[in-house]
Protein backbone atom coordinates (compact mmCIF):
# COMPACT_ATOMS: atom_id res chain seq x y z
CA UNK A 1 0.00 0.00 0.00
CA UNK A 2 1.76 3.12 -1.22
CA UNK A 3 1.00 6.55 0.19
CA UNK A 4 2.31 9.54 -1.67
CA UNK A 5 2.78 12.97 -0.18
CA UNK A 6 1.46 15.96 -2.08
CA UNK A 7 0.68 19.58 -1.31
CA UNK A 8 -2.54 21.44 -1.92
CA UNK A 9 -2.66 24.12 -4.57
CA UNK A 10 -2.58 27.80 -3.77
CA UNK A 11 0.45 27.66 -1.48
CA UNK A 12 3.87 29.10 -2.13
CA UNK A 13 7.22 27.46 -1.47
CA UNK A 14 8.05 29.69 1.53
CA UNK A 15 4.79 28.81 3.26
CA UNK A 16 5.29 25.13 2.49
CA UNK A 17 8.77 25.23 4.01
CA UNK A 18 7.39 26.55 7.31
CA UNK A 19 4.63 23.99 7.65
CA UNK A 20 5.04 21.30 10.28
CA UNK A 21 3.64 17.82 10.55
CA UNK A 22 0.49 19.26 12.14
CA UNK A 23 -0.68 20.31 8.66
CA UNK A 24 -0.19 16.83 7.19
CA UNK A 25 -3.24 14.59 7.10
CA UNK A 26 -3.64 10.96 6.13
CA UNK A 27 -6.62 10.75 3.80
CA UNK A 28 -8.70 7.58 4.02
CA UNK A 29 -12.08 6.43 2.82
CA UNK A 30 -15.17 5.10 4.49
CA UNK A 31 -17.49 4.12 1.68
CA UNK A 32 -17.55 7.02 -0.77
CA UNK A 33 -16.59 9.64 1.82
CA UNK A 34 -13.03 10.84 2.43
CA UNK A 35 -11.72 11.66 5.89
CA UNK A 36 -8.44 12.95 7.23
CA UNK A 37 -6.48 12.40 10.44
CA UNK A 38 -3.43 14.43 11.42
CA UNK A 39 -0.32 12.38 10.70
CA UNK A 40 1.05 13.18 14.17
CA UNK A 41 -1.69 11.01 15.72
CA UNK A 42 -0.87 7.95 13.59
CA UNK A 43 1.50 5.25 14.76
CA UNK A 44 1.21 2.99 11.73
CA UNK A 45 -1.07 1.50 9.10
CA UNK A 46 -1.42 -2.27 8.93
CA UNK A 47 -3.35 -4.60 6.70
CA UNK A 48 -6.60 -6.04 7.91
CA UNK A 49 -6.10 -9.02 10.18
CA UNK A 50 -8.17 -11.28 12.35
CA UNK A 51 -9.83 -9.37 15.17
CA UNK A 52 -10.75 -11.22 18.35
CA UNK A 53 -14.29 -10.23 19.34
CA UNK A 54 -14.99 -9.12 22.92
CA UNK A 55 -18.45 -10.06 24.24
CA UNK A 56 -21.11 -7.44 24.99
CA UNK A 57 -19.47 -4.63 23.02
CA UNK A 58 -21.31 -2.22 20.74
CA UNK A 59 -21.28 -3.33 17.08
CA UNK A 60 -18.70 -0.71 16.04
CA UNK A 61 -16.15 -2.13 18.49
CA UNK A 62 -14.91 -5.13 16.55
CA UNK A 63 -12.65 -6.48 19.31
CA UNK A 64 -8.89 -6.56 19.89
CA UNK A 65 -5.72 -7.45 18.02
CA UNK A 66 -2.25 -8.38 19.16
CA UNK A 67 0.16 -5.84 17.69
CA UNK A 68 3.69 -7.05 18.41
CA UNK A 69 2.77 -8.14 21.93
CA UNK A 70 0.45 -5.24 22.72
CA UNK A 71 -3.31 -5.83 22.79
CA UNK A 72 -5.20 -2.92 21.27
CA UNK A 73 -8.93 -2.35 20.72
CA UNK A 74 -10.20 -2.08 17.14
CA UNK A 75 -13.12 0.10 16.05
CA UNK A 76 -14.87 0.03 12.67
CA UNK A 77 -15.23 3.73 11.85
CA UNK A 78 -18.00 3.12 9.28
CA UNK A 79 -20.17 1.58 11.96
CA UNK A 80 -19.19 4.18 14.55
CA UNK A 81 -20.24 7.00 12.21
CA UNK A 82 -23.43 5.10 11.21
CA UNK A 83 -22.35 4.88 7.57
CA UNK A 84 -23.21 1.97 5.32
CA UNK A 85 -20.67 -0.71 6.17
CA UNK A 86 -18.54 -1.98 3.29
CA UNK A 87 -17.29 -5.48 2.76
CA UNK A 88 -13.66 -5.85 3.81
CA UNK A 89 -11.32 -6.06 0.80
CA UNK A 90 -7.59 -6.12 0.14
CA UNK A 91 -7.65 -2.30 0.59
CA UNK A 92 -9.25 -2.47 4.04
CA UNK A 93 -6.73 -1.54 6.69
CA UNK A 94 -6.31 -0.71 10.33
CA UNK A 95 -4.97 2.75 11.11
CA UNK A 96 -3.28 2.52 14.50
CA UNK A 97 -3.63 5.87 16.24
CA UNK A 98 -2.36 7.33 19.50
CA UNK A 99 -5.09 8.92 21.56
CA UNK A 100 -4.66 11.10 24.61
CA UNK A 101 -5.76 9.72 27.93
CA UNK A 102 -5.58 10.55 31.59
CA UNK A 103 -2.76 8.02 31.99
CA UNK A 104 -0.86 8.95 28.84
CA UNK A 105 -1.20 7.84 25.25
CA UNK A 106 -3.14 4.75 24.25
CA UNK A 107 -3.17 2.90 20.93
CA UNK A 108 -6.44 2.17 19.14
CA UNK A 109 -7.00 0.54 15.76
CA UNK A 110 -9.43 2.24 13.38
CA UNK A 111 -10.71 0.19 10.45
CA UNK A 112 -10.87 2.15 7.19
CA UNK A 113 -11.95 1.02 3.74
CA UNK A 114 -8.64 2.25 2.33
CA UNK A 115 -6.02 4.97 2.53
CA UNK A 116 -5.17 7.15 -0.44
CA UNK A 117 -2.58 9.80 0.32
CA UNK A 118 -0.95 12.18 2.75
CA UNK A 119 -1.91 15.79 2.11
CA UNK A 120 -0.44 19.00 3.42
CA UNK A 121 -3.53 21.11 3.97
CA UNK A 122 -3.12 24.84 4.50
CA UNK A 123 -5.13 26.33 7.35
CA UNK A 124 -6.83 28.61 4.80
CA UNK A 125 -8.21 25.54 3.03
CA UNK A 126 -9.99 24.34 6.19
CA UNK A 127 -13.43 25.61 7.14
CA UNK A 128 -15.14 25.19 10.49
CA UNK A 129 -17.74 22.47 10.74
CA UNK A 130 -21.09 23.78 9.57
CA UNK A 131 -24.06 24.19 11.89
CA UNK A 132 -26.36 21.36 10.93
CA UNK A 133 -29.25 23.04 12.72
CA UNK A 134 -30.06 20.10 14.95
CA UNK A 135 -28.30 21.42 18.04
CA UNK A 136 -25.97 18.42 18.14
CA UNK A 137 -22.32 19.44 18.16
CA UNK A 138 -19.81 17.40 16.18
CA UNK A 139 -16.78 17.60 18.48
CA UNK A 140 -14.97 14.86 16.56
CA UNK A 141 -14.99 16.97 13.37
CA UNK A 142 -12.08 19.46 13.34
CA UNK A 143 -13.13 21.02 10.09
CA UNK A 144 -13.79 20.50 6.43
CA UNK A 145 -11.01 20.84 3.89
CA UNK A 146 -11.54 21.78 0.27
CA UNK A 147 -8.82 20.14 -1.77
CA UNK A 148 -8.81 19.98 -5.57
CA UNK A 149 -12.57 20.62 -5.65
CA UNK A 150 -13.34 17.79 -3.23
CA UNK A 151 -14.38 17.85 0.41
CA UNK A 152 -12.40 16.01 3.09
CA UNK A 153 -13.83 15.67 6.61
CA UNK A 154 -10.97 16.23 9.07
CA UNK A 155 -11.33 14.27 12.28
CA UNK A 156 -10.11 15.04 15.78
CA UNK A 157 -9.24 11.42 16.45
CA UNK A 158 -8.92 12.04 20.21
CA UNK A 159 -12.54 13.17 20.30
CA UNK A 160 -13.68 10.30 18.06
CA UNK A 161 -12.54 7.76 20.62
CA UNK A 162 -13.33 9.77 23.72
CA UNK A 163 -17.01 9.55 22.85
CA UNK A 164 -16.88 5.78 23.36
CA UNK A 165 -16.81 6.44 27.10
CA UNK A 166 -20.57 7.08 26.97
CA UNK A 167 -21.16 3.35 26.50
CA UNK A 168 -18.95 2.43 29.42
CA UNK A 169 -15.75 2.14 27.41
CA UNK A 170 -13.19 4.73 28.19
CA UNK A 171 -10.47 4.49 25.55
CA UNK A 172 -8.87 7.67 26.86
CA UNK A 173 -7.29 5.96 29.88
Topology summary:
Layout: E1 4-7, H1 13-18, E2 24-30, E3 33-38, E4 42-47, E5 61-67, E6 70-76, H2 77-80, E7 93-99, E8 106-112, E9 114-120, E10 126-127, E11 141-147, E12 150-155, H3 157-162
Parallel strand pairs: 1-9, 3-12, 6-8
Antiparallel strand pairs: 2-3, 2-9, 4-7, 5-6, 7-8, 10-11, 11-12
Main location: cytoplasm
Domain CheW-like: 22-166
Keywords: Cytoplasm
Indicate the CATH topology: OB fold (Dihydrolipoamide Acetyltransferase, E2P)
Assign the CATH superfamily: CheA-289, Domain 4
Average pLDDT reading? 80
With strands numbered from the N-terminus, the spatial order across the biggest sheet is 1-9-2-3-12-11-10
Secondary-structure element pattern, one letter each: EHEEEEEHEEEEEEH
What is the end-to-end distance?
Answer: 31 Å
Overall tally of structural domains: 1
Strand content: 35-45%
Approximate shape: globular
Radius of gyration: 16 Å
> Describe the biggest sheet?
7 strands, mixed
Helical fraction equals: under 10%
> Do you know the CATH architecture?
Beta Barrel
Query: Would you count the extended β strands for me?
Result: 12
Domain CheW-like: 22-166
Protein name: Chemotaxis protein CheW
GO cellular component, one term: cytosol
Subcellular location: Cytoplasm
Amino acid sequence: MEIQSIQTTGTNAAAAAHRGSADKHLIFSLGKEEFGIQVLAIKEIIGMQEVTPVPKMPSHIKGVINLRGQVIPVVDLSLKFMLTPQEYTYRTCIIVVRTRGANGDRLIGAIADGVSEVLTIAQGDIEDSPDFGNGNPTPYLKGIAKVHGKVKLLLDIHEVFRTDSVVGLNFSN
